[in-house]
Amino acid sequence: MIDRRNLVDEIMEHSDAVLIVQQVQNMLRSEQERREEYYEIIGEDDKAEFVNGEIIYHSPVMKRHNDASKQLLKVLDVFASIQRLGYVGIEKILTKFTRNDYEPDICFFLNEKAKDFKPGQLIFPVPDFIVEVLSKSSRKAIEHDTVTKFEDYQKHGVGEYWIVDPDEETVEQYVLEDGKFRLVMKSGEGTIRSHVVRGFSIPIRAIFDEATNLAALREILK
User: Fold this and answer.
1) Is the Cα torsion angle 125, 126, 132, 137 positive or negative in sign?
2) Prediction pTM value
């Protein structure tokens, strides 16, 4: 991760610091124009994100990726709905960050944000909780989730981030503390408890095993 303070200090050591800043501003303006074009060309059938000036289209996922997303979505959505905690989005919810736009596999917005959502809304604010399910068919996709998104989610105050690995059948749980993500756990067994979705806890196996998932749903619906 780049130390912004050192970067600023390095720029200020140059006599043409103003010209450097102007060049960056021009590049960002051009990038913003491409971002506006991105909003125009993507459709409801596209799974695409705008990251550091580049439009990234996502390829179809393997069954185990889809299964993990679906299993977790079921229990999270039912729990959040029953408890009236907020709004759960999946896959094509376009979330807008300062520079980039992401479509997380699963995301959650607390009521403070969700109460203002409209039926025809296409662009959403930074979520409070995000889940990304790794796709090992692409090394770039893994780096995207574990490095680029990790840093951006952290900088923009996402309260909790889960990285689900459907191949290894594990979950990494990060919670934001003092502006930094802290690793709470990385495991394929035991119970995972959300810090943002108040009261939500499930066996980790419920993400990867249908029978365990159904048992977790029954507990939620009691």
Assistant:
1) positive
2) 0.86
